[in-house]
Specification:
Blueprint lengths: L2 H35 L3 H5 L1 H31 L6 H27 L7 H48 L1
Length: 166
């Protein structure tokens, strides 16, 4: 991976983390106020679970971005094909799976009552399903990483044997 690509991704991750902290500090309190004041009584009754789900969802995104940052550091150092990388990939997959569950939970919170249309709840469920699909893609990529680590270890072993022969 080129230095420019790593730098570009680090800039995107830094902006994403900064933006998510801003959303947590400024936008979520404003959302909480709006849910309690401006919306009907049906929405006000579920405002606390909605705010908790939103905050936890933002946390899953932040955790994923920090793990990708660490993986980028490993790429830059040339150590990404090691067992240490699995820890970060597993955390990313877990965070995405948690985001999927949080999305389904949001749909469950909105489902009862007349304040949110059934189609919106269905869309939220579809989004949860798509997020679960992303988690599965990360699991597949983890399997590819495992194969690459095994191949790298095998290549190192063969190189050591060749060095002994020479």
């Amino acid at each position: 991976m080129g230095k420019l690509t790593v730098l570009a991704l680090r800039i995107v991750l830094a902006m994403g983390i900064t933006g998510s902290v801003f959303v947590q500090a400024v936008m979520v309190p404003l959302l909480a106020r709006d849910l309690n004041e401006d919306m009907g009584p049906d929405i006000a009754s579920v405002s606390v679970p909605v705010i908790v789900i939103v905050l936890l969802g933002i946390l899953t995104v932040e955790v994923s971005m920090l793990c990708v940052w660490r993986l980028l550091t490993m790429v830059r150092r040339g150590t990404v094909f090691s067992h240490a990388a699995f820890r970060y990939v597993d955390v990313v997959a877990g965070a995405i799976a948690a985001a999927s569950l949080l999305t389904f939970a949001l749909g469950v919170v909105f489902a009862p009552g007349e304040s949110v249309a059934p189609g919106v709840v269905l869309l939220i469920g579809g989004a949860g399903l798509l997020i679960a699909g992303v988690a599965l893609v990360v699991v597949i990529l983890r399997m590819l990483l495992a194969q690459a680590v095994a191949r790298d270890a095998e290549a190192t072993h063969l190189q050591d044997e060749l060095d002994e022969v020479i």
